[in-house]
Amino acid sequence: MPVTHSAKATNNNGVSLGLRLTLLTTLLTGATLVLFAITFYQVLQATLRRQIDTQLETRALLFTRALTPTTSVAGAQALSLPVPLEEFAVPGIYAEVVASDGTVHAASPNLPGGRLPLAATVLADAHAGKGIRGTAMVSNTEQLRFLAQPLRGQPDRVLVVAESLQPLLRTLQGIRVVLLAGVGMSLLLAGGGATLLTARALAPIRQLTQTASQVALTGRYDTRVPLPHRQDEIGQLATTINTLITTVEQTLIQQRQFLADTSHELRSPLTVVLGNLHLLQRNLDPHERDLSVQEATAEAQRMRRLVNDLLLLAQADAHQVIAQAPVRLDHVVQETAATIARQTQDHTISLDIGAPVRIIGDAERLTQLMRNLLENAIQHTPPGTAVMVQLQQRDGWAVVTVADNGPGIPADHLSHIWERFYRLDKTRTRASGNSGLGLAIVKYIAEAHAGSVDVYSSIDAGTTFAVQLPLG
């Protein structure tokens, strides 16, 4: 069965990122709406109750002013309302005056049952001079909000003003219904909107995932993910993925080229060695036998050097640390130049070394650096070319320059000379034993010593390599 890749980003439990974002957005929106609804309801309820309490105070003052003292036949003083108050004729608004013995001396005409159902403790506190506010039940279905306070000018009597809370409760019930419906509708809208926005926001990510999965599945690293028009985090992610794919593609190309070049470099000396071994099996005269042995030995040494160079570059790829020890760089330069000068007869090597130069590094690798630079100068210049080697100290750096007055390096080749197996003249350098790894090794050794190497060249004016290494 073919392998398929899901385009949705999921966690270990299989819940998609889009669903999680939608749920999170909806929950946060719902929590915010519920908190707002509860706060709004509580504030509104408290405000309406305060308004009722204010209205009760106003009605208590109105009732007090409307009371008229009268004297009964027995001589007892009573209170009456000579003119009916429209304010207390409205259903649900009540008033009464109660004596300390519980006798009702005056009451609004709409008072059900003739009096308000207040607890004795409320009346006692009011007779004691306290203003009491509270809630009382008239019946199983109706609540009253009341204000009980001493009657002004008659401390033995208490004025009680009350208002039914049923209109308030019905209003609050309607508001609860509206708030619940509003929160529900808002959650539906928030969930739908979050789903659409999340799907739209994650669509580029799904496309990136599909493309990246396709690249990984097919191994076609020449494919690139489409770049979105917007330059936000998703655009940066797409650019990063393309950069990563490009890096992988270049690495694979370099590996294939490296394997091809390595195979080719090893095949030539192996062919020579095998050919000479076959010749040695024949009945050759001593001179020809010696020539075959010498040629096979030379090619075997060439293979050994190539393998050593490859191992060194493999260490470079693995970022292995080189040896660190005090090194007299002037001695390394002088001894390497003397060795190369003895091996060549058609080039002159001149030295310009000043004061002793000490650095921290690997003497063997530094010798290899100098040998590669000198051999490169000799192999790429015609016989009779002068090679100048100079060692200086400059601003805390040791600067080694290897210059020649040869034909120079074309400008379009300068950026490639540090690449492995790169050759300006492939035929001549392969025949001379050059594998094309020398300058790559020079660059690695210089950088491994926290230094650098630069090249300056002009056609028909020569080439100069400059290595900078920190003084130790």
Describe this structure in words.
A hairpin with a 3-residue loop joins strand 13 (452-458) and strand 14 (462-470). A five-stranded antiparallel sheet has the order 4-3-7-6-5, with helices on both faces. Strands 9-11-12-14-13 form a five-stranded mixed sheet, with helices on one face. Among the domains are: 67-164, 2-Layer Sandwich (Beta-Lactamase), CATH 3.30.450; 233-314, Helix Hairpins, CATH 1.10.287; 321-470, Heat Shock Protein 90 (2-Layer Sandwich). The chain has 472 residues and is of the alpha+beta class. The chain is rod-shaped. The longest helix is centred in the middle third of the chain and has 53 residues, at 166-218. Helix 5 packs across helix 10 and helix 6 (329-343) runs parallel beside helix 7. The protein has helices at residues 17-66, 120-127, 166-218, 233-280, 286-317, 329-343, 363-379, 411-414, 426-431, 438-448, and strands at 68-71, 77-80, 93-99, 104-107, 132-137, 143-151, 154-164, 325-328, 348-353, 358-361, 386-394, 397-404, 452-458, 462-470. Helix content is 52%, strand content 19%.
